Description:
Number of helices: 12
CATH class of the largest domain: Alpha Beta
Shape: globular
Distance between the termini: 41 Å
CATH architecture of the largest domain: Alpha-Beta Complex
Radius of gyration: 20 Å
Helix content: 40-55%
CATH superfamily of the largest domain: 2-enoyl-CoA Hydratase, Chain A, domain 1
Amino acid sequence: MDYQHITYEVADRIATITLSRPDRLNAFTPLMQAEMIDAFDRTDGDDDVRAVIVTGEGRGFCAGADLGAGGDTFDAGARGESGSASTSAGVRRDGGGQVVLRIYECTKPVIAAVNGPAVGVGSTMLLPMDVRIAAESARFGFVFARRGITMEACSSWFLPRLVGMGQASEWVHTGRVFGADEAQRGGLVSAVHPDGELLDAARALATEIADNTSAVSVALNRQMMWRMLGADHPMEAHKVDSRAIDYMGRSADVREGVEAFLEKRSPSFTMSAATDLPDFYPWWDVRPFE
């Protein structure tokens, strides 16, 4: 796919996905949706990619849905959109939700580098990313109630889990826009950096992952943590942990990791997240202990 609303670059085992409509503060479009999903498909299929950074071009991260259609922006029927390819049970699927679910399924760690305003879907697309850091100029807003719509992009599932029900309720019910410091205090982002240092900080974190960790370990750990958010008992984690530690305990990567530690050198892991995940993955589909 030739990208028009994003750019995609891989360097030093880090894929950088940049939302690229700077004249519109990178406002979200159906084309951007399709391109982001395609880009995450590429990252999962590329063994040279060990971490993913998502950021925005220019002075914004993502200003939310492109409101160029005016009052019909969120009315698919009024815009003449039809067809069943993107529908579920007769209801057209939310585009932001399709992007978020693809990020959630990703086998590579995803770092959000929020370089400016991130409003609406610009905020909700951040939620399934593993680490979120922001520039001092970043602004966030779950503005749905102020536009007469509801939460989208699976944010009613993600946001309370990440920041707690009280903080999520305040941000969503008021719909107000807030700054990077408040986002950090509320747990939405983990760090705030001067604008000119944001991407360097994101790359340093991505490099630490790429240089020091097993791709298969990271892929399994990422899904174990996300999936266990919905488990009703720690026994569910124990079931999966037991399988995972048994599989990795017999692997080439664990031998390399232990030997590198004992020999006081950097590890050189060889297993691939594209081809070497265990046969019980995805466990949420095959239910190996039932």
